[in-house]
Specification:
Layout lengths: L12 H33 L2 H37 L3 H36 L7 H12 L2 H16 L4 H24 L3 H26 L5 H5 L5 H33 L3 H37 L3 H28 L1 H6 L5 H14 L4 H15 L3 H26 L9 H21 L5
Length: about 450
């Protein structure tokens, strides 16, 4: 294995963060295009019921994969620590274990998804008029579980070693293929929701293949690993220690959104389509924030390995201001052109009107999520995953559910559901700032 890895433990902090974060920002926008292609083609070239079906089943899939995505965060933190400590053999062993574990887990989750799709959608109170299409979309989508996990694991490995450009390039290729495949299967072949899901399956498969090719090319993996692929349980225990809380955290966040979806589904298919369009539009803001959070997590993890705690403090502040700036620009554009933005996903006038009501409740407060994500990312990068999980469960899940129950009794209407987001973002942001200040300060002595 080559010992030349990109390091962000020295040099100008602003330059290091921006150079590392820019490909992640670009990748976030491509990822958004990738994820919203399904919604666009379903909403504009099939029907609003098809768009609702994609939206209703999408959150469930996100919840399931959230666990293993969180495990990939654990992989990234461990590799970042080893990169900062220049432990290259440890990096190689971590990569082998994570890819093997991810593949096995993907097989299990795919089988479970195919068997229990209808039952899960029933529990979510999915409207009967979109149940069949939702189940079909979900089952085909579950077939992309293994390649999706391999890409997420592999890209996390690559980014954690200091290279954020390659995952962006792979994502561009996958996003373009997804759009082309959607056009072929939905517009030309008229396959509806099934065509949308098949397009995702094909593009996810290609991104996984490209990621694995790079891992071999850069000697993260080699041919001898194929003969001796096994789980190093010592490394796996560390991955789970760092990653399981992040995985549970990811599932909890999505679970709380599924609870939101449950209440939304009670207002009918128009409300479902409106929220589905809103969630896709929201990703234009959310994904760049998350990409900066990923950058500061890697930055903090590498500098934790190198014991550069003053650099961690300064880097976190820089990342926070960068994230708030990006958020202000993007939310300002979307609020100014809200109707045009929603028309990207849906043509129905009534659904667009409902979507606008949601946007103007949450988007003015999205800067709170920037603080939550950057300080939370830094806390995770230092290795305090259990603390991060506790904050997320308490504020973005338990508190959110109780707020939903209270608002439903007050009969605030479907748009009132959106009020839970800024309230819980504020709570989590405050807690992460307090924890960060407590955890990083003692290390200066």
């Amino acid at each position: 294995m080559s010992e030349k890895r990109n390091s962000i433990t020295e040099g100008n902090i602003i330059r290091s963060l921006i150079i590392f974060a820019l490909p992640l920002l670009g990748g976030s926008l491509i990822q958004q295009l990738y994820n919203t292609a399904d919604m666009i083609f379903a909403g504009r070239f099939v029907s609003k019921e098809a768009a609702a079906a994609v939206g209703a089943s999408g959150l469930l899939f996100t919840c399931v994969i959230g666990l293993l995505t969180g495990i990939s965060v654990g992989v990234g933190i461990l590799i970042s620590h080893k990169t900062g400590a220049k432990d290259y053999e440890g990096i190689h062993n971590t990569v082998k274990t994570s890819i093997f574990f991810g593949t096995i887990s993907g097989i299990v989750l795919t089988a479970g998804g195919l068997i229990f799709s209808e039952k899960l959608l029933t529990v979510m109170n999915t409207p009967s008029e979109i149940m069949d299409e939702s189940a079909l979309y979900l089952k085909i989508y579950f077939l992309s579980m293994i390649p999706m996990i391999i890409y997420n694991m592999g890209s996390g490995i690559i980014r954690s070693s200091g290279n954020s450009k390659l995952p962006f390039c792979i994502l561009v290729a996958g996003g373009l293929l997804n759009i082309i495949s959607n056009a072929v299967f939905v517009i030309i072949f008229g396959m509806g929701v099934a065509g949308v899901a098949i397009a995702t399956l094909i593009s996810q498969g290609i991104t996984a293949i490209l990621t694995v090719i790079f891992l071999f090319k850069e000697n993260f993996l080699n041919l001898s690993d194929l003969k001796s692929f096994n789980l190093d349980f010592h490394i796996l225990s560390k991955i789970i220690h760092y990653g399981l809380p992040a995985g549970i955290q990811s599932m909890i966040i999505t679970f709380s959104n599924i609870v939101v979806q449950f209440y939304i589904n009670g207002y009918g298919s128009d409300a479902v389509a409106a929220y589905a369009s809103y969630f896709k539009l929201e990703n234009f803001v959310w994904l760049p924030i998350v990409s900066i959070g990923q950058a500061i997590t890697t930055f903090t993890a590498q500098n934790t390995g190198a014991r550069n705690y003053e650099r961690i403090r300064k880097g976190t502040l820089v990342a926070t201001f960068l994230s708030i700036g990006v958020t202000a620009i993007l939310t300002g554009i979307i609020l100014t052109f809200s109707e045009i933005s929603l028309e990207i996903f849906i043509k129905d006038v009534e659904v667009i009107a409902l979507g606008k009501k949601i946007i103007f409740i949450t988007f003015p407060f999205y800067w709170l999520y920037s603080i939550l994500e950057t300080f939370g990312g830094s806390v995770r990068g230092m290795g305090y995953s259990l603390t991060s999980m506790s904050i997320i469960i308490g504020s973005l899940c338990i508190m959110r559910i109780f707020l939903l129950m209270g608002l439903s009794r007050l009969d605030t209407g479907f748009q009132g559901i959106a009020l839970v987001y800024p309230v819980t973002w504020f709570t989590a942001a405050i807690l992460f700032v307090l924890v960060f200040m407590k955890r990083v300060t003692p290390n200066y002595s």
